[in-house]
Amino acid sequence: MITLNYRDTRPIYEQVKDALRKLIVSGAIADGEKLPSVRSLAAQLAINPNTIQRAYNELETEGWAASVPGKGSFAVRAERAEDDARRRELSKTLRDTAAELRAMGMPQSEIEALCKEEKTT
Predict the structure, then answer these.
(1) Average pLDDT of the chain?
(2) pLDDT over 70 at 119, yes or no
(3) 58, 13 contact by CB (below 8 A)
């Protein structure tokens, strides 16, 4: 489920947070599914429970989890409509930026190369 890389420069809580977020985004942890308890995940990963609690707090702050007192933490997946709205917003920004670059004299081929460059990184 989650593996830690002790050679990674990121703090352990960030590695845990990022791994859980990826599991939520990928659907491996379903929307509304209960996340492992702080103690059980800490025991599984052999780390301090405070580290897991910090990761859960960060997930909640970022909107990827919700805690219910006495019941635990649960995965929260953004509604598809919100994803679609954000996609439309970003697409409009991209179109506006491309139009501005063309108005400044940048050839279409360079604009397309920039998009392809970002796609591969």
Answers:
(1) 88
(2) no
(3) yes
Neighbours of 85 (CB within 10 A): 11
Return the exposure string of 32-60: e unless at least 16 CB atoms fall within 10 Å of the residue's CB, then b. Answer: eeebbebeebbeebebeeebbbbbbebbe
Distance from C-alpha of 51 to C-alpha of 79, rounded to nearest angstrom: 29
Write out the two tokens for 26: 């990928």
The two beta strands, 65-68 and 72-75, are antiparallel
- pLDDT tens for each residue of 50-109: 999 999 999 998 888 999 999 999 998 765 545 666 677 888 999 999 999 999 999 999
Rounded CA-CA distance 65/68 in Å is: 10
Asked if residue 63 lies in contact with residue 77, where contact means CB atoms within 8 angstroms, the answer is: no
Q: Is 45 in contact with 38 (CB distance < 8 Å)?
A: no
Integer Cα distance of 13 and 79 in angstroms:
26
Give pairs for 110-113: CB < 8 Å, separation 24+. none
State both tokens at 103.
Answer: 């108005």
